[in-house]
Amino acid sequence: MLAATARVAGDLDVAEECVQDAYLAALAAWARDGVPDKPGAWLTATAKRKALDVLRREKVFRTKMPLLVEPAEAETTDEPAGDDAVPDDRLRLVFTCCHPALAREAQVALTLRLVCGVATGDIARAFLVSETTMAARVTRAKKKIAAARIPYRVPEAAELPERLDAVLTVIHLLFTTGHTAPTGAGLVRADLVDRAVHLTRMLLALMPDEPEVRGLLALLLLTDARRATRTDDSGRLLVLEEQDRSRWDRAAIAEGNQLVLGAFRTGRVGRYALQAAIASLHAVAPDYAATDWPQVVRLYDELLKRWPSPVVALNRAVAVSMVDGPAAALADVDLLAADPHLAGYHYLPAVRADLLRRLDRPAEAADAYGAALDLVDNEAERAFLTARLTEVSEAG
């Protein structure tokens, strides 16, 4: 809805206000007349109509009061349309929001909030910062767009590569937010996952020679192939070791594996292709213990060279525990505990707790599970950690 309205308004702030006004109009109209057969179409049409009203008012203002009008007239009309470069409204808006005039984190945060509808708190968790900090970043990005008079203009084909990395980051974070929802009762937000996969497919059609686009689609398919088995019938979280691999989506795995191979054949392997290769090793292993863990560790080593993230280092520690044992991995995790970026990241104490449990140190494991519970907001993950805490407490 926002993307369609932005195309009419030519301004993201105006489009956002019109969408909000459309929702307010719906509250009154639907209470009076009933919900229409196609509520989404009704909202979109109303928001676009309000955008046209705004444009008409601005036109009248400029016509009647020319002395008050700034000389830069309708910047959107001065820019080449370039609509043919990106054929989908939503993907077009993603590229537009990833404007190089904005800092990378502002590009990604603004796009996730405005285009993808991800809550500010969930974006903050993805960036490992507070919700207040993230809200300020989104506000500053919107003000900068307005102050710099950045128009809603679709970048031309030649401009797409410089925005690609930010676009890939947006889609990846959209997927991870859906794969394990930061808040709420359910483990997965299927709408966000499906939207991320759809956007990546369109991106691959648009830029078929970019290996990182192939890598990202492969990563999403191989990871989401496990969706049906990540919880049991009662919604209880099942870790990778417990999942029924016969129920994994084999078609998605086959497609993902082909995409990984295609990305590696280009010789330009990036972080998404490397992550996809790790996911592929999990997907083809007959069971958890039989996974090629040494190769997983080597891939994480390569990934850390390209993307030195503490989250990647934590995931590598899990793989190290399967090769060299939980004591070796615990030493790595304890070093990571000093990284302030992971201070509010509940997976750090959760991984530590699991390693201590495997080392038969139940009292320390219980403390770590308690620390993880203090940080987690997803109910399925909370239930899992609570069960593990009960288990180690009874063992101690």
Describe the fold and architecture.
GO terms for molecular function: DNA binding; sigma factor activity. InterPro entries: DUF6596, RNA_pol_sigma70_r2, RNA_pol_sigma70_r4_t2, RNA_pol_sigma_r2, RNA_pol_sigma_r3/r4-like. Belongs to the sigma-70 factor family. ECF subfamily. This is RNA polymerase sigma factor. Helices cover 68% and strands 0% of the residues. The protein contains 19 helices and no strands. The chain has helices at residues 2-9, 12-33, 39-64, 75-78, 89-97, 104-114, 120-127, 131-147, 160-179, 190-206, 211-224, 250-265, 271-284, 293-306, 310-323, 326-336, 347-358, 362-375, 379-395. The radius of gyration is 24 Å and the shape is globular. Mean pLDDT is 88; it is low at 67-83.
Low-confidence stretches: 67-83
The helical percent reads: 55-70%
Count the strands? 0
Gross morphology is globular
Overall residue-averaged pLDDT value: 88
Please state the oligomeric state of the protein chains shown: single chain
Provide the gyration radius in Å: 24 Å
Describe, in short, the structure shown.
The protein is mainly α and 396 residues long. It is 68% helix and 0% strand.
SSE layout and pairing:
Layout (H helix, E strand, L loop, with lengths): L1 H8 L2 H22 L5 H26 L10 H4 L10 H9 L6 H11 L5 H8 L3 H17 L12 H20 L10 H17 L4 H14 L25 H16 L5 H14 L8 H14 L3 H14 L2 H11 L10 H12 L3 H14 L3 H17 L1
